[in-house]
Amino acid sequence: MPLYKKFLLLLCVINAMTISALMNASPIPLLDWRQLPPLPDPCGFASSFVGTAGEALIVAGGANFPDRQLWEGGKKRWDDRVFVLEPNAEQWRLAGRLPGPLAYGVSVSIEQGVLCIGGSDETRHYESVFLLRLEGGNVVIEPYPSLPKPVAMAAGARVGNIIYVAGGIACGGAADPLREFYALDLNDIAAGWKTLEPWPGPGRSQAVAAAHQNDFYLFTGLGRAPAEEGASKPIYLSDAYKYSPTAGWTRLPDLPHPAVAAASPAPVSRNGDVLVFGGVDGQGGGRPQDFHQVPRRIQIYSSKLNAWRAGGQTPVARVCVNTTVWQGAWVLPSGERSSGVRSPEVWSVRVQDAEAR
């Protein structure tokens, strides 16, 4: 072997050993899990809009199976109720209703309230965007600029004064996922949403977003690939990307495991650890109710080391749940704990040096 090749090989080995040593020495963020009062619905919801308005926590809309479970032929119901939890309150209260039943959208907290972006109901997907704010204890709805097209099951997060939305699907059924990337500047709302260059990978729905410093992260998601007779089949993606307004997109190391529909935006610690909770990896069981097993694993991406490591387990399994930061902790309200089965439980997790987004 030529000398220069031996030198390059030695560098690669040293680099791998250094990263391994750093990862082993890097402590897992301390996580303090607690339960908040459960939502006042016996089923709970998947993919509600979640955020804060003033000091209050808001959960709005969502979807569930109120009569019979999915594998028993139950029919999905979309909800329009807006629930509010005040600090130190022992139960949620009904504070109003959405313009109509809605779920599977992106929600972001801004200074004025909760921005609800896209989503779907029983009949269609929506491009509408509106703000939920509280006035006299009741919810008030204000319209915002609409998305360029209808989108549900997208991923989104706020980075500074920019809101990013990535992927999703534009209509129901086994539709091809979108490879679309939108941005709204909160300092220039009148300019509306801009379409940006998408990530260098396949389209996806139910991806996981995250925000740290000036960067937007996009992890995993559900893609589709051609199958026999012109149909398509789902692909559980494990690729990962970072977007910077100055540098554009950067491909990151793949997740060790796909994490479709994991809690989003993913919690981020101040030192740049992104925590991906659970998510579907395509490993199902034999029973219909186990079609999608929901792992409790935590996968941690270090933005400093550009590498992944295992981070233990969550106390409960949840997917299809939007997150927000409230009173210094990340809140995961309701969500899906197995195929079609929701939970009214509301969990919070305080991450050491958690960043409020």
What features would you highlight for this structure?
357 residues; mainly beta; Neuraminidase; four-stranded antiparallel β-sheet; 1 helix; 6% helix; 41% strand; globular
Overview of the structural elements:
With 357 residues, this protein is mainly beta. It has a single domain (30-351), classed as Neuraminidase. The chain is 6% helix and 41% strand. The chain contains 1 helix and 25 strands. It has one helix spanning 3-25, and strands spanning 31-36, 49-53, 56-64, 77-85, 93-97, 106-110, 113-117, 129-135, 138-144, 155-159, 162-166, 181-185, 194-196, 208-212, 215-226, 232-244, 248-252, 273-277, 297-302, 307-313, 324-326, 329-333, 336-338, 341-342, 346-351. The strands form 7 sheets. It has a 4-stranded antiparallel sheet, with no helix packed on it. A 4-stranded antiparallel sheet has the order 2-3-4-5, with no helix packed on it. The longest helix is centred in the first third of the chain and has 23 residues, at 3-25. The N and C termini lie far apart (52 Å). Mean pLDDT is 90; it is low at 4-25.
